[in-house]
Amino acid sequence: MSVKDLTKLHPILLNRIEELRKQCDKHGLRIGFSDAVRNREEQNRLYAQGRTTPGSIVTYVQYPNSQHNWGIAVDFFIFVKDKNGKDVASYEINTMNQVGMIAQNIGLGWGGNWRPIDRPHLYLPNWGSTPGLLIREFGSPDKFFASWSEKETQSNVVVPKENIKPTVPILRIGATGDDVKALQANLNRHGAKLKVDGVFGQLTDRAVRDFQSRRGLVVDGSVGALTQAELRKEPSLFFPKGTGLGFVDALNSIKVDSSFANRRRIANANGIPFYTGSARHNTTLRDLLITGKLKRP
């Protein structure tokens, strides 16, 4: 996405994404922006993708029903280095979540709160989460663009809220040092049996993934703010109460991995060593979960 394209964004949004870039830089996160203003042809071409043209569905609305058509939305990505040291775009979920939290603290809306989730999507929340209000008031994006005042164009510099919390470093396999030692100690508090040596190797990666699975986090082996926040909590012997007609639904209600492998681990921790997925086993486990008596593995 060129700078020329970004300058077509609403001036308030332009200021806020520049502030977001600065805040992310402070926390060691390098971000870029793409997919800013879409015209009629671009929007309808994207809408056709996965429907009447090849490819996967990437949008659910036609022109002018996307925030991108009105200059009040932009998508972001994370810069990472590939094995050759070249900058490439990444959409690692836990890192995207960190940026989304910072974005909300400086007054941006974030698609990570939507269903279905759209983590790269940032927008000005002044008109809600859809352009419905703009369509009713202005009729077309061109009329909305013409309404932008000189004052808006020259001002609206954003002052970040004071409650922005520094993000923790993102740790993954290959990392070393005191941060990794603290991670290993925290993992041991939650049942791992790691040597606290400050080396993020295969055993630590396995322990991280196991912890993320048990806590309903994205299982990617990367330790960012969300995983660290869960690690800082006191270990609990039991899952929180769930709801649902079946065991799988009840696990999903508390965002815990409901795969057969994980259900078998949970069953083993709750006195069912030979879990088969039968109705009897699932009913027993569901009843424990909805009463808050299901033990964590």
What does this structure look like?
- Strands 1, 2, 3, 4 and 5 form a 5-stranded antiparallel β-sheet that branches.
- This protein is α+β, with helices and mostly antiparallel strands and 297 residues long.
- It folds into 3 domains: 3-154, 2-Layer Sandwich (Muramoyl-pentapeptide Carboxypeptidase, domain 2), CATH 3.30.1380.10; 178-232, Muramoyl-pentapeptide Carboxypeptidase, domain 1 (Orthogonal Bundle); 247-290, no CATH class.
- It has helices at residues 3-6, 11-26, 40-48, 93-105, 132-138, 141-146, 150-154, 178-189, 202-214, 225-232, 247-253, 260-269, 279-290; strands at 31-34, 73-81, 87-90, 109-110, 121-123.
Sheet with most strands: 5 strands, antiparallel
- CATH class bucket of the largest domain: Alpha Beta
Q: How many individual domains?
A: 3
Classify the secondary structure makeup into a structural class. Answer: alpha+beta
Note the overall shape: globular
What is the CATH topology assignment of the largest domain? Muramoyl-pentapeptide Carboxypeptidase, domain 2
What's the number of extended β-strand segments? 5
Tell me the distance between the termini.
Answer: 46 Å
Poorly predicted tracts of residues: 153-168
Helix content: 40-55%
Quaternary structure type:
single chain
Mean pLDDT: 85
Order of helices and strands: HHEHEEHEEHHHHHHHHH
**Rg from C-alpha positions?**
23 Å
Output the number of helix runs.
13
